[in-house]
Amino acid sequence: MIAVVACVFLASRGCDGRSRSVFAAYGDPESTRLELNVASCNETPTAKVVESDTEVRVQVTSGRWLGRNGDDCADGVVVTLNAPLGTRTVVDQSTGETVEVSPADPLAPPK
What we know:
Blueprint: H1 2-10, E1 18-20, E2 22-27, E3 33-39, E4 46-51, E5 55-62, E6 74-80, E7 89-92, E8 97-99, E9 101-102
Parallel strand pairs: 2-9, 5-7
Antiparallel strand pairs: 1-5, 2-3, 3-6, 4-5, 7-8
């Protein structure tokens, strides 16, 4: 009940989520898997991707943060691209900045 009231109260402020900046990205040129790291403090981020021949634009959002405290603010989002990353540039839609893509984590699940 409290969450419903909070959502109704915050509806005009975007209770469905807010944009998050990508601070790290991991992937391999031959893979369709792209891992994104954002600071959303355990808010279950989600990502939307728009692909072209030259770039991959990512928009990450998460739910509203209602005063949670804690040191663990790094969250990850994995997206599956329609085609391997190749030489395409990854752009954070929320900032317009290019995100450097580091080699994928060797402990991550297979491609």
